[in-house]
Amino acid sequence: MTKLFDYLKLRIESEGSITLADYMAESLGHSEFGYYNSTVPLGKSGDFITSPEVSQMFGELIGLWSAVCWQQLGTPNKFNFIELGPGRGTLLMDAIRAAKVAPGYLDSIELHLVETSPILAKLQKESLSTLKNSCLWYKKFEQVPDGPFFLIGNEFIDTLPIRQYIGAGGEWYEQLVGLNKFSTALCRITSPTPSDGEFIVPLGLSGWNDGIIWEICHEAQKIISSISSALLERGGVAIFIDYGYVKQTGGDTFQAVRNHEYSDPLEAPGLTDLTAHVDFEAIKQVAEKKGVRVSGPVTQGAFLRRIGIEKRAEKLMNVATPRQKRDIETSVKRLIDDNEMGRLFKVMALSYPETFQLEGFCNAECD
User: Fold this and answer.
1) Is there a domain that residue 314 lies in?
2) Residue 207 in domain
3) Which among 51, 58, 142, 335 has most CB atoms closer than 10 A?
4) Per residue, what are the HEC states of 126-139?
């Protein structure tokens, strides 16, 4: 067992079973034993690879897209470029390199990184040290200075803690994490009493049967609300790219990845990456209620095609070796193919004011 298991065992023995959200928060963010505070999770040597690690084209297109947003906002002299959970800093490096072609853009932007992991923050500082633009780090989005902004959250929301409820006999019962009868391992436990009002059956849900699982991410709703408020006050664009569903129909999406393979999310707390699919419908409702414009969600494949990934790939292949051409073709396929990341991953943007149409989106909910 892990050191975090020993900590959680003592906590559960003292306080009783904990929520899945508490378990995720401890497993990922515990100051000493948490996953993001004790390991490097990204890249081939880590547990998973994100889109910026797949190909430079992903970050380049985001950088160019951000420059277009800046132009649509009237080319403000001071413009904050914010990334939530920047990983190794790969996306930001690629984005800034590509955005050099937009006259005046790099002179206007200030780079702000929101990162809770000291290990990843150190890697980011090393990889971004060659940039002319200064970078500032924060633990929370709310700490970023005022001013119009562009914000990117790539595979950020999926790491936020969720709570799970199971339907039975017309009631909802929360799924908890406790100890097995020997206190040698963690296990899932269903609360013996129904939810006391924290959870309300989602609007539009009908005909659900006993055993259906419903997931709620309160942290995602909170940060979307905060970002939406900032957009209303300062103006700007926020884009989120993550795997998830346009409309939740119930189901258990809580999962763990270790060494690029799926594993039991309760087996090795602190040593595995824990995520859950993003409920885009829920966060869209939060943003619309605040009064910002919501574009999407659309599939990642459709979005990247619309903003030019195939043209960019063709340009790169014109000067590439045969091996490099194969690598480019493989990476593009991985990013946009429906059977890989192209359909599972969705893209949604928030913007204010509502005076311009964001590139890459259409009127359809999702392609």
Assistant:
1) yes
2) no
3) 58
4) HHCCCCCCCEEEEC
